[in-house]
Amino acid sequence: MTSAPAARPGRRIPWLIVAGVLVAALSLRGPIVAPTPVLLDIQDDMDVGGAVVGLLTTVPVLMFAVLTPVAALVIRRSGAEIALLASLAGVLIGTFVRALPGFGWMLVGSLVIGGAITVGNVVIPVIIRRDVPPARVSAVTAGYVSMLNAGSLLTSLATAPLAAAIGWSPALVTWSVVTAAGLALWLVHLRRTRVGGAGERFSGLSAAPSGSSRGPAPAAGRAARTETAGTLTGPLPAVGARGERSMLRRPVTWLLMLAFAMQTTAYYALTTWLPTILQDDLGVDPAAAGALASIFHGVAIAGAFLVPVLTRYFPTAVPAAIVCLSWVLLAAGMLWLPSAFVLWAIFGALAHSGGFVVIFTALVGVARSDREAAGMSAFVQGGGYAVGAVGAPLMGALREGTGSWDAPLALVLAVTLAYSVLLLTAVGQTRRG
Fold it and tell me: What is the distance between the alpha carbons of residues 227 and 229, in angstroms, rounded to a whole number?
């Protein structure tokens, strides 16, 4: 079996690329979370209902589901570096559009942000796999997930105090500084890449990688490992109709997609409304509610590393069970004992950061080739985000209809229980197969 040329153990870590990826990650969740501490102010100023204002986080998530195939095409045509620049530029533009007067412009800006982040979601794992030494991929990926949560932490913690000082709309625009920093750092990398004569690798997303004798489409009968360098230099290699039918006939594919859908539903529903729940149930002001909600994102920075550490010593079923229990404790605790929120938020942070790692670790473990892994990843994320997009508006509508947070939180509890069954079943199939 031929080993992939990319897997050279002696490669040095490309620190500028890693830094660019980590700084860019700050802008791939933070802009979605930014409005949540001031949702009540937006709702009052714009005179809209809870279900409608929940669309500010729903629209970007829906874009994740709808635009993943388009993002893959953009990356193939432009190359990874240009695609990531376009992603950050889109987030920057969307941030300013969202600040224009009128709720309609807020939705348009959220749509632009979601579309731009979709490209970043797809391209960053490609860059990590392409440029980071194989022995360091897990650590850099965990760092990337941590920075996603750091961006959410930053906006959740500081948006309300900024809004109290300068107004909620300018406060949302303030976070464009973080995106601009990511743009600047990636431009430096791009300039060094071109000046340094690395243009062959730069254009490698639409052709075979430098030094490879293979064309852009490896032969169908080739062993999985020989596909690695050529296939996954691009973002989402085409599986083909025959491969898609085979993949979709596997129960584990559907189990992973539904588990990801349940996690996404719970995460974005809670992320959207958590500051508001804390204001209503604990009687705290918006700044304090944002600070408390930031625990849900802050602990997740460390939580992203929990699963990789546990999987070194235990089967995947062990961290999966811990993640499932943590999700259920968060939902049940918020429903029956919200005064102990800090404890539940810690469990929730471990759940949502670790759950992502468990799902995609299981996916990689059960995929029979790189092509199938890419196809499964697209299916799991596309279907999962499509379902997850309904969480925030449904939770807002239940709150308006019932006058309390009991029914919405009971819904989240039901979702986490379903998630637990689906994920543990999927992991069990991975171990058998």
Answer: 6
- How far apart CA 400 and CA 397 sit, in angstroms, is 5
Candidates 54, 129, 151; CA nearest to 370 is 129
Q: Are 419 and 328 in contact (CB under 8 A)?
A: no
Rounded to an integer, the average pLDDT of 145-169 is: 89
Q: What letter would DSSP give residue 385?
A: H
Chain segment 1-58, per-residue pLDDT in tens: 334 344 444 567 677 888 888 899 999 989 998 998 898 899 888 888 877 888 888 8
- For residue 287, give both structure tokens: 């700044």
- Comparing CA positions, the residue from 332, 299, 311 lying closest to residue 412 is 332
Instruction: Kindly tell me the burial class for residue 134, based on how many C-beta atoms sit within 10 Å of its own C-beta (0-12, 13-18, 19 or more).
Output: middle
pLDDT higher than threshold 90 for residue 199: no
Q: What is the DSSP string of 236-250?
A: S---HHHHHHHHHT-
| 403 contacts 397 by C-beta, under 8 angstroms | no
Burial class (CB in 10 A: 0-12, 13-18, 19+), 168: buried
Contacts of 313 (CB under 8 A, 6+ apart): none
Sign of CA pseudo-dihedral 144, 149, 151, 153: negative
With beta carbons less than 8 A apart as the criterion, state whether 226 and 1 touch.
yes
The structure tokens listed for 113 are: 């942000």
- What is the b/e burial string over 85-95, where b = at least 16 CB atoms within 10 angstroms of the residue's CB? bbbbebbbbbb
Predicted confidence band of residue 87 (pLDDT cuts 50, 70, 90): very high
pLDDT at 322: 94
- Of 244 and 64, the one with more pLDDT: 64
> Does residue 248 carry a pLDDT above 50?
yes
Q: What value does the mean pLDDT of the chain take?
A: 80
Structure tokens at 85: 């620049």
CA dist 128 and 17 (Å) reads 9
Model confidence pTM above 0.85? no
pLDDT tens digits, one per residue of 254-286: 999 999 999 999 998 998 899 999 999 998 888
Is the C-alpha dihedral spanning 71, 76, 80, 86 positive or negative? negative
What single letter denotes the amino acid at residue 93? I
Is 118 within 8 Å of 88 (Cβ atoms)? no
